[in-house]
Amino acid sequence: MRRDVFQAIADPVRRDIIEHLAEEPLTINQVADKFDVSRPAISKHLKILQECGLVDIQQQGRERFCKIQPSSLVPAFMWLEQYRKLWEDKLDSFENYLNELQSKSKDNE
Fold first, then answer.
1. Angle, helix 39-51 to helix 12-23, in steps of 10 degrees
2. Phi and psi of 64, rounded to 5°?
3. How many angstroms separate the CA atoms of 94 and 32, rounded?
4. Is 33 left (phi over 0), alpha (psi -120 to 50) or beta?
5. 9-25 pLDDT per residue, tens
6. Are residues 11 and 26 in the same domain?
7. Hey, which bits of 1-109 come out as E strands?
8. Structural domain count, the chain
9. What are 24-54's pLDDT values in tens digits?
């Protein structure tokens, strides 16, 4: 099954794994130690992240190190970016509306 970046980041545990790996490469055990889920569950999450190209896992001696591949997040970033302006405009409009209400409330006092 071919997975994509959106499937990977849809899960909160995988987003947390990405966040930890963004700070530094970690062994699979180090990643697992950061969560209250089983090591096999973490391994499954890492496998999905690896299939999506978000994480690279390399054997170094007896350890397997996980390293983030941030360039793989670009498609998700670009998709979200197209909606940023839309939401900024809506939030600005909402802020103006609230300011207007507040102003009318002060005028009526």
1. 80
2. -115, 115
3. 42
4. alpha
5. 889 999 999 999 999 99
6. yes
7. 26-27, 55-60, 63-68
8. 2
9. 999 999 999 999 999 999 999 999 999 989 9
33 and 85 assigned to the same domain: no
The answer to whether residues 23 and 44 belong to one domain is yes
Q: Are residues 66 and 94 in the same domain?
A: no
The SS3 assignment for 4 reads: coil
Range of the domain at 55: 5-72
What span, in angstroms and rounded, lies between the C-alpha atoms of 39 and 31? 9
Q: What angle do CA 69, 30, 42 make, to 5 degrees?
A: 70
Q: Is 18 exposed, middle or buried (0-12, 13-18, 19+ CB in 10 A)?
A: buried
- C-alpha torsion 92→95→101→103, nearest 10: -100
pTM: 0.71
